Amino acid sequence: MILSETAMDTEADLFYRQLPKVELHAHLNGSVSFESMEKLIQRKPHLNIEHSMTAIRRGQRRTLDECFQVFKVIHQLVDSEEDILMVAKAVIQEFAADGVKYLELRSTPREVTETGLTKQRYIETVLEAIRQCKQEEVDIDVRFLVAVDRRHGPEVAMETVKLAEDFLLSSDGVVVGLDLSGDPTVGHGKDLLSALQKAKNCGLKLALHLSEVPSQRDESELLLNLPPDRIGHGTYLHPEVGGSDSLVEKVCKQNIPIELCLTSNVKGQTVPSYDKHHFQYWYNRGHPCVLCTDDKGVFCTDLSQEYQLAASTFGLTQEAVWKLSQQAIGYTFAPEPIKQRLEKKWAELKQQFLP
Ligand SMILES: CNc1ncnc2c1ncn2[C@@H]1O[C@H](COP(=O)(O)O)[C@@H](O)[C@H]1O
Ligand SMILES: [Zn+2]
């Protein structure tokens, strides 16, 4: 009995792992795996950092505030070009090994005086990692979103947008957009509006973390007017959790896809349990939904696991899971020919999968 259950589990695991997937919401430094973290900790023993400080294990929860403390620790470990190249390459390879065929990675460019790291070099190094993976024929298409950390305020946001704009023009299509993230309890989106508007005007796609916590209703109301091209989390948009009909209407009317990260929200305690996750609300309305990991290293997950969790929690059939992964192609910021290439790949693989 136990044996057959194990066999079934393995078969199910395999389905999700082999399922071709699109990852659209992954923060670089939050995605660093256990193995890479070990290497970084060994490189910097003087920091006295233990692995328990950089990851939230199974069954553990942290407040969102504590999650942001974790990022501070990781940033101490990843503070040079060498580190960034190492973690970015590893993260890309790990996503590829998990069956992700298209990845939009995002990261906040940082400056570190001690190591000579500049924001420009930060982005160039991530792009170099993407280039090397491509050259090594890792089976994944990777694009990059330059991230604005809301905690740093409007001037830094504007500076970052300018940098992103330069790379939009010079990166041969790899830099496709701008992310707004960072501690949602700090600052107000109204101060960042002009930077975001500028980004949009110059052709950068916008992926904004919206209503991750309940206090952001007015901010979301404002930022939805831009409008963003995708929404991160959107946990508190609907009226049942303190959002509003007007917010839902804006999201629906403009058909803005929502990036949903189950484990991140449960472990970060913005959602009380998997079965209460707002995936259900949006999915049942037939709204564009895409499952994502957010921070696979910090939350100890991967995209296969997120699909499996959504399927088991909300009773999705394999056919429905397939459709979910395929529809995500349409929500990428990739140019049309790339989307077509991905569609073709999915169509070919489907015959093996769901005969
Ligand atoms: C858990 N929910 C979340 N909400 C908001 N922002 C988040 C986040 N998870 C990650 N980040 C953002 O991503 C940074 C780490 O990656 P990078 O250094 O940019 O690669 C964090 O410092 C934060 O700004
Ligand atoms: Zn995020």
TrEMBL record:
GO terms under biological process: adenosine catabolic process; inosine biosynthetic process; nucleotide metabolic process
Single Gene Ontology MF annotation: adenosine deaminase activity
Enzymatic reactions: N(6)-methyl-AMP + H2O + H(+) = IMP + methylamine
Cofactors required: Zn(2+)
Descriptive protein name: Adenosine deaminase domain-containing protein
Record text on subunit structure and interactions: Monomer.
Natural source organism: Culter alburnus (Topmouth culter)
Ranges for domain Adenosine deaminase: 20-345
InterPro entries cross-referenced by the UniProt entry: A_deaminase_dom (IPR001365), Ado/ade_deaminase (IPR006330), Metal_Hydrolase (IPR032466)
Family membership: Belongs to the metallo-dependent hydrolases superfamily. Adenosine and AMP deaminases family.
Entry keywords, A to Z: Hydrolase, Metal-binding, Nucleotide metabolism, Zinc
Alphabetized SUPFAM superfamilies for the sequence: Metallo-dependent hydrolases (SSF51556)
